[in-house]
Amino acid sequence: MSWTTPVDVLAAVCILLGAVLTLIAAIGQVRMPDLLSRMHAATKPQVLGTVLVVIGLSLSLRDPAVVGMLLLVVLLQMATSVVSSHMVGRASFRAGQVRDDLLVVDELSDGDAHEEPRGAP
């Protein structure tokens, strides 16, 4: 038994777990009741699923050029997913498309609930 067999098994497990997390993200898109919950269900497991699939591919392919490209894919996925979900969430809140009864904490409303001034000093 060489060292490649356990690495290939670990790669297969990572790819399978990444696929399961991506499936969970897709189910969350359909099942969640409002926009903010759907965004949460889409971004959290989707990014972790992508990272696991990329780790599995890196372990399976074992080529430094491919690993560097996959690392770039992960970094861009993490950056764009966070920024895009933040912008969609703010835009939907400002457009009034968020259900207020489902919010636990509302930090974006104009109420006097904040003791500290908002914005940059």
Automatic annotation (TrEMBL):
Keywords: Membrane, Transmembrane, Transmembrane helix
Pfam family, one: PhaG_MnhG_YufB
InterPro entries with a match to the protein in the record: PhaG_MnhG_YufB (IPR005133)
Residues annotated as signal peptide: none
Record field: transmembrane: 6-30, 67-89
PANTHER family given in the database record: ANTIPORTER SUBUNIT MNHG2-RELATED
Similarity comment: Belongs to the CPA3 antiporters (TC 2.A.63) subunit G family.
Name the UniProt record assigns to this protein: Monovalent cation/H(+) antiporter subunit G
Species, as recorded: Nocardioides abyssi
